[in-house]
UniProtKB/TrEMBL annotation:
Protein source organism: Catenovulum agarivorans DS-2
Gene Ontology biological process terms in this record: bacterial-type flagellum-dependent cell motility
Keywords of this entry: Bacterial flagellum, Cell projection, Cilium, Flagellum, Secreted
UniProt entry tagged with the keyword Secreted: yes
Entry keyword annotation includes tRNA-binding: no
Name by which UniProt lists this protein: Flagellar hook-associated protein FlgL
Family named by the database record: Belongs to the bacterial flagellin family.
Compartment annotation: Bacterial flagellum; Secreted
InterPro entries to which the protein is assigned, alphabetical: Flagell_FlgL, Flagellin, Flagellin_N
Gene Ontology molecular function terms on file: structural molecule activity
Length: 408
């Protein structure tokens, strides 16, 4: 076979290009630290790497979700702490307001401070997170949850839904307290009361002389209608000649005693004031009201108004103070429960986050076993290919320099 000059050049060039290709691959393996530069290098391994990368991508997103969720819960916990501190101060002022030694000026000064506290609490209830969402508005996070209506009363315009954030393959955690701001601030127990029936044959009024005593009676005896029949919560003060009996709707006598005109009748914390002297057979009918719920802002508003009223002292002020103290205690109980739940949720989030990090390490280890290049082996291969490339270049120069004239 005759070796032409073109054939010699072509074969030499192919050898150089092949060694150059191997050199480039050896360099890429060292730089990228992987033996699988394209799927054809290891089809099975490449498929596994894709799955590993998908797992790592999900774990990375879970980590971001965890950080965002913890920030949201921490923001809520901070707001709740501020609200609790403000309520504690309001509780102290409410007790002081009942001091009989204070005059109208003192009470008005307390009203000013209580009003500022109320505004601070309202501002904290309408707190936002770093994304600009209202944290106590439920799913309606684009609007402030607590606003004042035309009458000046605070109302809740959020909802009870809470957004959930996925922090693992199977776990979604609520980004707020179940029921949101409604359950913490709006769904707050207030003092219960009764309604005196307009059909009563005797006339009178009542006040809560002992709220705790009546709340216990209400809790034990109130029946929801339906399923209970109508009238299940009806009671009557039935008068005799100089006597009275308190009866339930079935006629059972719950209490009795002597009656003197102008003397209040006390029953389970209620104090009834009867007008005139009822005749035998007349009765004062009353019904247990539905369990009361009241926003703490409205309770504070009522006390503030009472303190600003020059005629507000006396039993009416004391009743308002007792009702406000009850509302404050109930609100602080709700806030404390919410803070506890946030703390427990953050503990769960931290635990899941640690599990995710352990899983991430395992996935990276499995991926490395499939595709990661051995550093020493990669360096050796690069040096080998560099030597081969240099030899190819040197050989090409010598071969292309051959000529018959060199032997003449």
């Amino acid at each position: 076979m005759r070796l032409t000059t073109n054939l010699i050049y072509d074969r030499s060039l192919q050898g150089i290009l092949e060694t150059q290709k191997k050199l480039v691959r050896a360099n890429d393996v060292l730089v990228k630290q992987t033996n699988i530069l394209k799927p054809s290098d290891d089809p099975s391994g490449a498929t596994k790497v894709v799955r590993f990368d998908e797992d790592l991508s999900r774990l990375e997103q879970f980590s971001k979700n965890t950080i965002q969720l913890k920030n949201q819960l921490s923001t809520q916990e901070t707001a709740l702490t501020g609200i609790n501190n403000s309520l504690t101060r309001a509780h102290t002022l409410s007790i002081q307001a009942g001091n009989g030694a204070f005059d109208d000026t003192d009470r008005r000064a307390m009203a000013v401070e209580l009003d500022l506290i109320k505004q601070e609490i309202a501002d904290l209830m309408n707190s936002k997170n770093s994304q600009g969402d209202y944290i106590f508005a439920g799913a309606k996070s684009d609007k402030p949850p607590f606003i004042q209506d035309s009458s000046g009363s605070y109302i809740y315009q959020g909802d009870e839904n809470v957004k959930k954030v996925q922090i693992s393959e199977t776990l979604k955690v609520e980004a707020g307290i179940p029921g949101s701001g409604f359950s913490i601030f709006e769904d707050t127990a207030a003092r219960n009361g009764v309604t005196i029936a307009g059909s009563s044959t005797a006339s009178g009024s009542y006040r809560l002389e002992n709220g705790d005593s009546f709340d216990n009676f209400h809790q034990q005896n109130y029946l929801k209608i339906p399923p209970s029949p109508a009238g299940s919560n009806d009671y009557s003060v039935v008068f005799g000649t100089g006597t009275y009996q308190v009866q339930d709707n079935s006629g059972n006598v719950l209490d009795s005693g002597n009656f003197t005109a102008g003397t209040p009748i006390n029953f389970k914390g209620l104090e009834f004031s009867v007008n005139g002297t009822p005749t035998a057979g007349q009765q004062l009918d009353f019904t247990l009201n539905d369990p009361a719920k009241r926003n703490i802002l409205n309770s504070l508003d009522e006390l503030i108004s009472r303190l600003r009223d020059p005629q507000g002292a006396g039993d009416s002020l004391n009743d308002t103070i007792q009702n406000t103290l009850f509302s404050i205690n109930q609100s602080q109980e709700n806030v404390g429960f919410a803070r506890s739940e946030i703390g427990g949720r953050i503990n769960v989030i931290d635990s899941v986050d640690m599990s995710n990090k352990d899983l991430e390490i395992n996935v990276k280890s499995a991926k490395a076993k499939v595709s990661e290049a051995d550093f020493a082996e990669a360096v050796t291969e690069l040096q080998k290919q560099e030597t081969a490339y240099q030899v190819s270049n040197t050989t090409f120069g010598r071969i292309t320099g051959l000529s018959l004239f060199n032997f003449l």
